[in-house]
Specification:
- The chain is α+β, with helices and mostly antiparallel strands and 93 residues long.
- It is 16% helix and 29% strand.
- The protein has two helices and four strands, in the order αββββα.
- The protein has a domain of 58 residues.
- Strands 1, 2, 3 and 4 form a four-stranded antiparallel β-sheet that branches.
- The longest helix is centred in the first third of the chain and has 9 residues.
Length: 93
């Protein structure tokens, strides 16, 4: 993704919404954004790095819908619940 593509995607978002990094598809967590650094790579080509915030605080698990949208996990549904008898477990006593 280029900086222009990132700007285009961010332009469609609420400017007042907090920005977060989604990290590690095997243990998806959310992190605060920190610095944005423009530099050059080993070939002299421009590259931009977005760093995690200095306080490096994990904000908790990534919301499941975000992990699914990133294809980091499969959509999950609650298991079907078995119906209990009308009287519950003590009805046969």
């Amino acid at each position: 993704m280029t900086v222009g593509e990132l700007v285009d995607r961010l332009s469609a978002c609420d400017r007042d919404a907090p920005a977060r990094l989604a990290i590690n598809p095997f243990f998806p967590m959310a992190h605060r954004l920190g610095e944005v650094i423009a530099t050059v790579d080993e070939h002299g080509d421009p590259v931009v790095f977005i760093a995690e915030a200095k306080d490096a605080e994990q904000l908790g698990n990534l919301p499941p819908d975000v992990a699914v949208a990133l294809t980091w996990q499969e959509p999950t549904e609650a298991r079907p619940r078995r119906r209990r008898g009308a009287g519950g477990p003590s009805a046969s006593q």
